[in-house]
Amino acid sequence: MSTLRLRSAILSVLTPMLLVMGVVASGTATAAPTATAPAAFTPAQLVGPYASDVPPTGTYIPVLDGFAELRRAHPSIIASNLQKVKAINNSATRAQQADAIAVNYDDRLVSLSDALGDRLGTVFRQLLAAGKLPKVDALAGGDTARAGLPLGTTLLEKEYYDNPRPFVVAPTSIKRYDKPGGHLYAELVNNGSYPSGHTNMAYWKGALLAYWLPELGPQIIARAGEIGRSRIVLGVHYPLDVMGGRIMGTDIAAARLADPRFAQLIDQAGAQLRDQLRRSVGMSLTDFIARDTPYLTTQQAVSEHRNLMTYGFPVVSPGQVNGIPASAAALLRSRFPGLTDGQRLDILRRTAIRTGYPLDRSGANGGWLRIDLAAAYAVTP
């Protein structure tokens, strides 16, 4: 199916999807807030529509199309892509296997919450399950979360690239890990691999969670990287799929935050989250985080995430020229509220990896691969 036809198919169901979301939300959105029922978004707020609902070019293919170039000009990278899956999958520890299985079935927001620390992560999950974070849940909870819709899925892109998954290409070389009675491989056997949808969601949800809790930004972004790696552990994705998912997820989050009207929803959800967390822990979040057992230290988070950005691939385009996209500056607004967008963009430039790694692109569609949000959040204001 052509890109245009796929785009038309998705856009044809856009309005009904959003209207359904509004109807589903209306049961609680119009209720008066109480001590046990914090206010939810109204259906009108969720439906919008918003400028960031559709990317400027209609799809995310322009920023992801470094994959087509690799297929055409760098067969050794494609071959290495499969070898890296085999190595990561075959050498996975029991803990990595268990985490990968849990990540497969859990909402990415729940998986990301591990990064908040032993006690704060537990509090967050309890509040989410109790319905006390309705705005956070509406924007970032589940597969139909509003911040990722309508084109925040990877369905169109997967269909476009039609890349078979590792366990399909090399069935005798990939070990399968699943829960008893699980169905993850049966569900994915006919589904394209590039880009990784789990990683896409992990990064845009992670970018929002880090935006809401900038004190833990490096840890949250590192956890997003771990979620991406978990897909390789299962043998259902390649490193390039995960890198592409990061590109797409970062673009989505930046677009939402750079959209003034949608950013208002994000800010409201963040205020609700911080208020509910403070009420639950009975002290300032800064003090509570300082007393909690961290998921990773800031240094560990930055180091781990940097290692997961390129998976050991070599630079393939040493003379490549691009810049960090201007819209990405919005990702750091809560971390550096006193800076201008130009200054925030400079932080992203200074903490970025070099140009030319696989999937990085020249010109206006490039630069997304280079963004290291964990390192940027770790910069001292």
UniProtKB/TrEMBL annotation:
CDD domains (UniProt xref): PAP2_acid_phosphatase
Sorted UniProt keywords: Hydrolase, Periplasm, Signal
Enzyme Commission number: 3.1.3.2
Domain of life, per lineage: Bacteria
Enzyme class: hydrolase
SUPFAM superfamilies: Acid phosphatase/Vanadium-dependent haloperoxidase
Domain Phosphatidic acid phosphatase type 2/haloperoxidase: 135-257
SMART domains listed in its UniProt record: acidPPc (SM00014)
Pfam families the UniProt entry points to: PAP2
Family classification: Belongs to the class A bacterial acid phosphatase family.
Name of this chain's protein: acid phosphatase
Source organism of the structure: Gordonia insulae
Gene field: phoC
